[in-house]
């Protein structure tokens, strides 16, 4: 069953750290089986929503998404980001057909 990695950025504090993270994170997540479905600033938001950067990836499973997060390549990306952003990452299982 597919799983979805959802990242929302409350604040980007350091553009250079963010760029270093992105250069490492994209290839790491793709190599781990992730497919980027959407990324950018929200085009519309409702109720308690806010205009913020969001990223959505699809993985083959929750286990694959967690392994991607915990893998050495993504951990190197996190080290590059350091305190450069305030964000939330969630992994949500897809619906069964």
Automatic annotation (TrEMBL):
<protein>
    <submittedName>
        <fullName>DUF1330 domain-containing protein</fullName>
    </submittedName>
</protein>
<dbReference type="InterPro" id="IPR010753">
    <property type="entry name" value="DUF1330"/>
</dbReference>
<dbReference type="Pfam" id="PF07045">
    <property type="entry name" value="DUF1330"/>
</dbReference>
<dbReference type="InterPro" id="IPR011008">
    <property type="entry name" value="Dimeric_a/b-barrel"/>
</dbReference>
<feature type="domain" description="DUF1330">
    <location>
        <begin position="2"/>
        <end position="94"/>
    </location>
</feature>
């Amino acid at each position: 069953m597919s799983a979805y990695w959802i990242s929302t950025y409350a604040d980007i504090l350091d553009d250079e750290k963010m760029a270093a993270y992105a250069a490492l994170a994209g290839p790491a997540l793709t190599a781990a089986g992730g497919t980027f479905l959407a990324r950018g600033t929200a085009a519309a938001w409702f109720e308690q929503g806010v205009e913020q950067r969001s990223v959505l990836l699809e993985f083959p499973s929750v286990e694959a998404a967690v392994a991607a997060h915990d893998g050495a390549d993504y951990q190197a990306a996190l080290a590059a980001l350091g305190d450069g952003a305030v964000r939330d990452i969630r992994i949500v299982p897809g619906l069964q057909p």
